Amino acid sequence: TPPWVWLLVGLLPLLWWPASRRESGLALLFLALSVVASVPSQGDTRWSPYQKLVGRPASIAGPSGELADGYLVQVSDVFY
After folding, report:
1. 46: which strand partners?
2. Cβ(12)–Cβ(31) under 8 Å?
3. How far apart are CA 60 and CA 11, in angstroms?
């Protein structure tokens, strides 16, 4: 499963601790923001046991200046 699922499962029990309605709303807001922040970026995302791999089609300029179809690979949020 992707990391956002594990983050949701891990943080869900924290909603039982707040005593007031205001604290519960704030805890729910932080839970939602944490899950949204862990959603993968756009592109074809694959998860290996060690890192996130994201691939995107891209136009790349060749040596003589012509555009060619290529692929941009992002490994753990670093572009290659």
Report:
1. 53
2. yes
3. 42
